[in-house]
Amino acid sequence: MRFPLIPDVDSFAGIVQSALGKEFRHRRNEKLAQLNLRIEEKGVELVQEEVSLWQFLSEDGHWGVLVNRGMIGLHTNAYVDHKNFLDRFISVIERVVAAAGESIQQVEALALRYLDLVKPGADDTLEDYFQPGVLPASVDFGGLSMLGGIQIVNLKSELGPLKLQVIRKPDTVFPVDLHSPLVIGNDWSLKTPEDVDFATIDTDHAMIFSPPAELETFDYRTKLFSLREPIGGIFTRITTEHAHEVWKKA
User: Fold this and answer.
1) Domain of 32?
2) Alpha helices per DSSP H over 148-204
3) Quick check: bond before 211 cis, omega within 30?
């Protein structure tokens, strides 16, 4: 969630930590070139800027609350389902907003970003898991082989911009902008599959409010669940029934 900039992020971080209590007790601050969340018409991305970014990590190390001068977010490497994640995120937002008082009275943007690693089973190919035309394709010429590729589709829903990226055989499972010092420091990096074709599905969906929306009447739950719906629908649409059956058995 993005909101108008707060002058003193370090003092704000102390307010956030008090609001989160024991659930997110491990506090870490990065004051070097760091990743900052941008939510714009072209999509959601993390860009390197000179910022002060705070993270509050859960006791088990699987959930992290991110805070800077104009953003609060939640990320995890222990995703269960969208209801569990969104309930946690809404709880974090409500506690922080209540503690912040007049410091946060408006919302400029809301966004969700999902990453899915797709790795075929021993008897399958990656093409068995995706609908035709979704994967970056090789070129059948002169013995060329696929080293990697990316398909990017920029869309717009009735809520706002939506971006779909299907990245085939990337150097890291996480996209470059998400393979950050925080992710690495949390020990969340995933080992890149070796000697197998695989893909990362990267989908984000955002709502941008201009002018900013007033928090007094803002319905987080409805808006966040509405953002999630097309993300789930796209994932189901671009993957195959065979993939769905394999994943049900996993």
Assistant:
1) 9-109
2) 181-185
3) yes
* Domain endpoint, select from 109, 130, 147: 109
Q: Report whether pLDDT(29) > 60.
A: yes
Gap between the Cα atoms of 66 and 207, Å rounded: 19
pLDDT digits (tens, 9 = 90+) for 167-185: 999 999 999 888 888 888 9
What number is the average pLDDT over the span 108-135? 96
**Number of domains comprising the chain:** 2
The residue whose two tokens read 């696929």 is 146
* Nearest Cα residue to 19 out of 86, 95, 104: 95
Range from 30-34, 143-147, 188-192 carrying the lowest mean pLDDT: 30-34
Q: Tokens in use for 180?
A: 């950050």
Residue with tokens 């939640």: 74
3-state secondary structure of 40: strand
pTM of the model: 0.89
Environment class of 98 (CB within 10 Å of its CB; exposed 0-12, middle 13-18, buried 19+): exposed
| Residue 148: C-alpha distances to residues 13, 158, 199 (Å) | 40, 33, 9
